[in-house]
User: Fold this.
Amino acid sequence: MYGLLSTLVFIVLLPFYYIVRVCNGKFLYGWKEKLGFFKAPNLGDKVIMYHGVSVGEVIALENVIKKTKEEFPEYKLVVTTGTKTGQDIAKKKYAEVADYVTYFPFDIPFCVYSFLKKINPTVVLIAETELWPVFSYFCRARNIYLYTINGRMSDSTYKLYKLLTFFFRPVLSKYTKVLTQSEIDRQKLVSVGSPADRTFVMKNLKFDVKKSSETVDIGQDGYRVIIAGSTHKGEDEIILDIFKNKHQKYSDTKLLLVPRHMTRLPQITPILDSLGLNYGFRSKEDSFKDKDVIILDTMGELSKMYSICSFAFIGGSFNKTGGHNPLEATVYSKPTITGPSIHNFRDIYWLLSQSNAGKIVKTPAELGEYIEKLLADSEFYAQACKDCETIFQEQQGALDIVIKELKDVLK
Assistant:
């Protein structure tokens, strides 16, 4: 019945939806693939499929996808997304890993049937909590192992799903297993219909971040280094102004400024000049021994640099970018601060902000106040570092659980 109704509604509404999108300057990216009208490569009968709807989920899957490729080299790897931004990231990140990257089908019988016939997955692992009735029905009918991994449910979503338990219970019953980020998420999903004997806590995939084994020496010994990582337009002015103010009060502070895009350097250096800050460049091997600010203008070094900082501001969060990954700093037990735009890593920032491991600030003024607290209150700072260690101890291990599940069903 759901399949019939969804097909009828889709046919009726698609023309109107298309017109609205075009009038708004947008298009139905991936619509042919979502309809099942695509030509897939010959993948054979051993296929593992991962699905992440958008950017955050695609990024969260990175380590487990790469580990899957290592552990199951005889299987083809397919990655699907639901959005264009997710598709772009997936094609960029998994160009050398995935055998095929495409869009997830519309949850309509003919679309799902065409998709599964062409991809023919042995196992499907869907990141977080996307429940598709038709897709789950066809997976069960074709004896495809179907998993939710990294599952979570916000309070607002839970209220809606709770009202529709009668609808979601039969959908969730078709899943091989539902693996959640926390015990609270597990309890929520069980209460809306997920079978208790097939719903387990796996922790959070995004916390499977490894420390770099490389050592860093840019003359940081004896100084408190603040990192401003992956800054975007408008954020350099904010952090540099704050740093100048703090440096006048705390002379042992240094700043490692890391623009997200190096093409912006001609716009950044005049700001430093206007503030009278003494700065250098990583590419010139400048040192904190004679520079107060160093611009990291080399590629691929940011993650290891977090090992030398006292704490970090994570950029892309005072505009509409949606933030960047704070865990590259947290893994070194370094507290992070971010602005209000965090939709790419919302669940991570929520977890960090439950303790002093991470702080979400709304304004530049609040950012300055929190930096002051970290610099001035040694006990508070020590606790924030300890909270970083604690949250990693609590959350790591999810990747190993997913790989174990795959080994159990693919043996």
